[in-house]
Every structure is written in structure tokens, then in C-alpha cells.
Write a structure and sequence with these properties.
Helix content: 55-70%
Number of helices: 3
Strand content: under 5%
Structural class: mainly alpha
Shape: globular
Order of helices and strands: HHH
Oligomer: single chain
Length: about 80
């Protein structure tokens, strides 16, 4: 299964969360569209599962990014 880029997934989650806090009619339509996109992006059929899956993927991506981050100037280089 293709996985969305973490930055795109983060944007979808953040926008959906922000829109659902304000219950205006315009926001409801946008929230439905985002819910659909989250479900398609995560391979789920329910927005609650989509949000849970997205958050798990984002957490895993941040752990992976930290594990492969280049050394800082304070850390010795493996090739030095």
C-alpha cells in the first residue's frame, strides 16, 4: 500500500481537527472532504480509524527520522 508523505498526513490531520472544533456548515462540508481523504490515505473506512492510523504513522515516521538524522556538530562522525 502506498503511504502518504508525513507532511501531507500531518496537514490533513491538523486541518480536520481544527475544522471539527468549529461546527459551522462550511466547516462541516470541508471536514467531510478531509475525512474522506484521510480514509483513502490510510486505507480505512471510518474517520476515527483514519485519525488513529495517521497518528501511528506520524509517530513511526518521527522515530524513523530521528534514527536516521545526520549527526550534529557535537556528535563524532562515523567516517572521521
Amino acid at each position: 500500500m502506498l503511504m502518504p508523505h508525513p507532511a501531507v498526513l500531518r496537514t490533513l490531520v491538523d486541518e480536520y481537527t481544527a475544522l471539527t472544533k468549529n461546527g459551522s456548515a462550511d466547516n462541516q462540508a470541508q471536514a467531510r472532504d478531509l475525512a474522506y481523504t484521510l480514509c483513502v490515505s490510510t486505507g480505512t473506512r471510518d474517520v476515527r480509524h483514519a485519525l488513529e492510523t495517521a497518528r501511528q504513522w506520524l509517530e513511526a515516521a518521527s522515530v524513523t527520522d530521528a534514527a536516521v538524522a545526520p549527526p550534529t556538530d557535537n556528535e563524532p562522525h562515523a567516517y572521521a
